[in-house]
Design goal:
Radius of gyration: 47 Å
Strand content: over 45%
Oligomer: single chain
Number of strands: 47
Number of helices: 0
Amino acid sequence: MTITGTGFTGATAVRFGATAASGCTVNSDTRITAVAPAGTGAVQVTVTTPGGTSAQFVVYGYATVPAPTLTSVSPTSGPVAGGNTVTLTGSGLTNATAVRFGGTAATSFTVVSDIHITAVAPAGTGTVQITVATRGGAGDGISYAYAALPVASGVSPDQGPTSGGNTVALTGTGFTGATAVLFGATAALSFTVVSATQITAVAPPGSAGPASVNVTAPAGISAAGPSYFYVNAPVLSGVSPSSGPLAGGNTATLTGSHLIEATAVRFGATSAASFTAVSDTRLTAQAPPGSAGSTRITVTTAGGTSNPIPYGYLVAPTLSAVSPTQGSLAGGDSATLTGTNLTQTTAVLFGAVRAAFTVVSDTHIVATAPSGTAGPVGVSVVTPGGTSPAVAYARVAPPTI
């Protein structure tokens, strides 16, 4: 307190009633600052100098100031490095002179009202008591825990569609009380804290490429989280050949985009016997067996399932006759083949030799017999559905005279 008057030079004592001040400083002949001792009620304040004790006095009143109380703190924990802001709730906080976390003063604090204080936590470890000091003393403390930052060390699966919506499992430490899971800067659609070391989260939509997965907990946000890769859905633009035999086993080449991460290739509901992603735009697959008719090929990646493209299962061709049944050694003779499933013929063979041909209908082909040696030869037809059994054709030497 500050005492004003005259003749204070050389003052030797300041008394509050009969009790000397805890300390005093003569600032000038007209001003003294003094620290009031403990006391009760109303007392007279006097100043003593070599010239005597002041006859005039002022009255100083001791009032009972209740100690502050704390009822809650939010959040209840924070990082060991401190720096986070906590809100204290209680009563009698108006004249707070200090906020301490254990034995360490808060980095700063602001009295919001008689029932609220915000304080910036200092660095610390373990669980400490937060106390608030006022002229009425320091009330009972409230617990606050220093915790290590969460650490996200793994995510499984580590890729998914750009549309999001798939569930992933995060592993790490310090997940208790987690308040957010972030994929890059985007919050998970939802998450569940399974334990201090595991969280399940539903990935939000994102752009193709990697996104760091981090966890926010009362202690802070994890750093350098594992990467989660957003993958574009595959797109198919073509297949060659576009049909094959009922028995399968032939190799189909699929073209499109975003194929390199393929996890499955299906012909209808049946998985390909095997497949190889040659590049992001090309994939080869071995067709499984199927039923006659058209089916749909799809490719699946972590980004989703592609658009379907048609593929036909063909019944193998058959030949029932060739007319005429013989021709010259020099070739060039026209032969009409009769059979079934001839529409998609890719080759007509006289033995192992290819012949020129024209598909007339699904049951007829006209072929030009190639040259060859005298004697019988088997004629067969090749389609994507397979190779027909052969019918006999004979090359005959010209007569000699």
